[in-house]
Amino acid sequence: MTYLPVPPLAHTLARYQEVVSPLLEEHEAARTAEICAEFEAGDGPRLQEALERNAEAANGDGTSWLTDLWYAAYLASRTPLTLTSNVGFELAWPEEDEGLDRATRLAHRLARIHLHHTRGEIEPQTSPRGEALCMRQWSYLAGGMRRPGAEIDEIVPGPEDPARREIVVLHRGRAFAVPVSDEHGDVIPLSALRTAFEGVLATTADAPATGWGEGEETPFSAWSYLGSVEAAAYERELLADSHNADTYDRLLRAFFVFTLLDDAATPEEHALDTAFTYGRTWPFKPVGYLACLADRYAGMHIEHTVADGGTLQTAIGLAQELPDDPDTPRDEIDEAAAGSGEADSPHEAGLEGPEPLTWTLTDDQRARLAADVAVYEEEAAHVRLRVVRAPIIDGGGRRISADAVQQLAILYAQLRTYGRVRSTYESVDMREFQAGRTEAMRPVTPEAVTLAQAMVADAATPGQLDAAFAAHKRRIIQCKKGEGVDRHLLGLRVMAGELGLSTALFEDAAYRRLTTDFLSTTSLGTDDRIVRYIFAPTTDGGIGVDYSRRSTGEYEFVLIHGPKRDGDIEEFAAALEDGISRIAALVATTG
User: Fold this and answer.
1) pTM of the predicted structure, to 2 decimals
2) Residue 128 burial (10 A CB sphere; 0-12, 13-18, 19+)
3) Rg (Cα) of the chain, in Å, rounded?
4) Are 233 and 222 in contact (CB under 8 A)?
5) What pLDDT is attached to residue 214?
6) Which of 49, 54, 102, 354 is geometrically suited to a Cys-Cys bond with 97, CB 3.0 to 4.6 A?
7) CATH no. for 9-71+383-590
8) Residues of the chain scoring pLDDT < 70
């Protein structure tokens, strides 16, 4: 596996000036050039050398120079994870069944993927170009927990033992430990899992939806939607009780949380709830899955420290491809699901059935927790979602990048709506490198800005479009080669902090402008495995954008924003559609 390189200092400083130039006035760009020259002649080489030493040590440990920086940045977050870095996904689940049948089959296949990982059965993955991909991120499948701390969180890995593993099933605020493997590490029969789910539903049939009323059980999600400082305080207080400590340990060791939803909703409403609504999962777990009993929605909630979208997408694809049960013919499964009585129950299979998991709290603790959750719910209610779709552009035999088309439309919409250009983040997968994560690609190139300005003025030319396409491709290639700017500058900035150096480069307005993402964008390409995903904007007043190519023949843009954008999000949405239309006209002209 290739090591993640530390790019040459001079190369990064030159490219940094190019990348940030569209965000600067001429005099600001001149000042940034002076600062870069001073940095290269002064502290830069010392910081570069320190980073290269770190890289050499990390390479030998099976990680990279980025690994510790990545974890430190994520684990230092103090705000609620759902409003900071976690992501909610809508999954593509093509099976035609419904209700409990659908939920059970989904949970069973997902459990088998988690078991395949702990048994070492996940095949090494390769990129579309045949390059070996780092498998380090797949550790999320073992379970475990991000455990909150007063100053910084920690990752507690799950056990890499497939025997007698459980999942935590949530329904109406109640939780149950449900076995998914036996003492040999083999998955329990699908029929046994269905019986366990039936037991959960029977127990919660009369349970209230809220769980905060007098005499009601504390909702299992408890403190998990609070920020790390508050969550850590509740853990210190509540886990002193042995019952609570045992419950927490079961949760930590579980492969995942699986939530059964009662109420039908639109896919977009479900996805928004998956990302932000209190009680849908336990956000400190690496992954939680959701299935609605009233419609065909399937979802996933991810804590983002360990795994990125590419790995998650591949794992869901593996689950999609599994047969229902490798040991049971389909007709026998259907008979069992219909209640024939021939299938093994969890007890008949030598396993425990669904076991309630609860928290023991005093009245004072419940009251405080309910008040804290109410504060979170009020903040989460401010997150909005707007979906925009436009027809996919027909290249007329010419191959054009859907990613570039959508990024150019996003840039045009920003310029037309706000009259200026601010920084845009685009995620690029870097798993071709050992412990590679993502690079921050900056799609706002000088060529793209020239095109967008011309589009606003109704004066764009096919040549400008070609230049913008070519610039976008160059930036992607540079990132894929490990020559990105953002992560290298982050490494140098951290080295400066460790050495106690105050560096003008990182105090310059240009650096702040580049790293303050007005638009945080990401894409997994198509919707065949993951339909869409929802994440909070990374800056106050910013917009999160999930963009993809739909199998329905449309580009889709999912815009996530807060109240500051309420007055202009419709104008931005209309400009996106107009941008796609204008690019289509230019493509037709070049064809």
Assistant:
1) 0.94
2) exposed
3) 25
4) no
5) 66
6) 102
7) 3.30.559.10
8) 209-215, 326-352, 591
